Amino acid sequence: MTIVKDIEARGMQHCETTALGVLLRHEGLDLSEPMLFGLGSGLSFIYWDGKGMAFPFLGGRVKPFDLTRNLAARLGLTLLVEETTSPRKAWENVAAHIDAGRPVGLQLDCYHLEHFRAKVHFGGHIVAMYGYDEHDAYLVDTGQQGGAVRAGRAALAMARAERGPMTAKNRSFTITLPERSPCWQDQIIPAIKDCADAFLAAPIANLGHRGIEKAAAQVPKWLLRAGDPRQDLPQAALLMEKAGTGGALFRALYRDFLGECVQLIDDSDLRAGHKLYGEAAILWTDVATLIAKAGESGDAGYLERARVLLHDLSRIEKDAMQLLRRL
């Protein structure tokens, strides 16, 4: 058995920030999950319904691994990323760092992990790995998935090698801090402004505040769109509320990030943006509840009410980002 020493296996709400927290705490930098999410300019929105998709995808954040890249660039961290199509090389890439006493981040498809109760393919899941033995890998996943967990090495290999939307080629990564600890407080305003700029100037109508408006137009059709409404709609609502796809979890994280920021920076636009994202987080939870009720009851009236809230959310988030862009 090989275990990296001094690992705090703390499972948080979101997979990528959970993994980043493990890697950075081991390096000596302990930031809250909302601060990691905000400094990585993690908030976004996408509504996607392509050919061959069983059900529409709602994403409330930037693409998988973009948050990690953003955070590393902003704080001057050394981010070493390794990818390969070889299963043997993929394991060697990870084991070498573990053997040297450094935890590793992995991007994989959570469908193959034994500790996941809901079997859904998602190739953008990220975990931290801090040890292994002959049979198992020792991982840190989100609190919802158990925090410190084990995965069979064969299952982990399948998860890392899976191909499909948002997957990577056995991607693993490590993070090293610069000699001088980064002054992360100086990067708060640039991170907020970059996030706001991207949200407001999204290149297609499926993204940003226009993507939320797109969702408002499409959600009323979901009872007809779903193959199994009683399963598909509650599942979509659960992902929105607990996994962040669609809004609720990530809006709460961004609200809390802005709440930490107002304790450090005295700015009226920042306070106003924080208040608006507090409103948005509550409304996203209401949307998820209405979508679940529509699936359970078959009553399209719940989806019409969700449409109205989504229309309001598009306006609220646009207003918030316009304020935050002025910082």
TrEMBL record:
Database matches in Pfam families: BtrH_N, DUF4872
Ranges for domain DUF4872: 155-324
InterPro entries: BtrH_N (IPR026935), DUF4872 (IPR032369)
All residue ranges annotated as the Butirosin biosynthesis protein H N-terminal domain in the record: 14-142
Name of the molecule in the record: Lantibiotic ABC transporter
